[in-house]
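User: For my dataset I need records formatted as: sequence, then structure tokens, nothing else. Please produce one.
Assistant:
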Amino acid sequence: MNNSILKLSMAFFAGLLIISQSNAQEVWSLQDCKQKALDHNQKVKSAISDYKASEAGLKLSQRAHLPNINFESSYLYLKDPNQMKIPGYELPSTNGLPSGVWSPASTNNLTYENTYSASLGLSLPIYMGGKLQHAKHISSLALELAADHVELTKSDLLLDVEEKYWGLVSLKEQKTVLEKSVILLTDVVKQVTNWYETGIVTKNEVLKAQVELNNVKLAYLELKNNVELSKMSLNQTIGNGILSSIKIQDSILIIPGQLSAVAFDENQLNDRPEVKMLNNQLEISKTQKKLVNADYMPQLVSFANYMMQNPNHYAEQEDEFTFNAGVSLNIPVFHWGEKKLKKQQQQMSIQKAGYEIDQNIEFIVLEIRQSIFRLRESLVKLNFTQTSLAQAEENLKLEKNQLMEGISTTSDLLDAQVQWQQSHADYINAKAKVKTYEAAYYKSIGQLK
């Protein structure tokens, strides 16, 4: 009996340990959420797949100048080969007189009943007008382009995670404030009710306090629903089940002091993935123009073949292996102005890429400056809300004391409580805005990690 109780106790405590460990795993920091989102997001995975495909393309272009070895074989069977019948005839003589020698009739096959061939060939490009080098350079640029696209996709995702994460932190803090408001107003209702029962205040004062308490309870209920919806949204972004119970690590928004010193620097443009992508696209267009020139340059290719075939017109006997080698030279001579027109097309692509760079840099500069202005404004607003919150807390404390001394009314206390609650909400929202605009600023300068 004692052994059974001991086993049950051990199983119980083991279950509690597993539950506590699973609960601990549900606590997520901001970096945990970011990493989970990067591992889950389909757009990021798609961009990484494009990058790997570009890697394979670069490897292919690097091997284009290597010799190629190919094996080819064929076999053909004819059931009834075509035949040529030759009638008999008298052989001619040197003096023009009848020779008396008769050649009999014969039948010859015009085709072979069994025809086959097998060859092992090697080809090696010697000079292609620079085409292989240009193709390799384009593949290298395409790989950089794919890498920048991965970074751009990640930065968009990380900003989304930051906004949802700090939004949830803000809602949690506001929920705490409303919980304090419920406790405060519950005490006020009790106190006012006691005063009403002793005849100090009217029924109207009790009803005012009760209405305010009901309003706060309703706001608390709505906020609880918003917290759950915010958790669902964050769960969907990081790849958890939508209804998963998630606990976030941060509960207090901490604002770094160095944010007020942010300023615009043109060097920040170099870290933006979009600028890198546009520059690579421009370089690709320039290289494609060079590739057009390469298409109209002489092209020299060497080859060698080792073969066996039937019929074999290069050997003395059937089924004999033969070898041949040589070079092939192709020189474009006249193509009705194709080269000039294709170069014009590529020149227009180069100009278009340059225009896109200029336009997008203007947009990016505007985005960076806007993010700086918004971050600075949010910091100023945060300072204002801190002052307002301190005043509201002092005012609420004063009204509570005056109400207890009978100097102020219930309405004054309720107004002070509403002001305190609103000041807290403004302060929390201001902190969340700072964190969100901070993330937006770092994304605008290409440094959001």
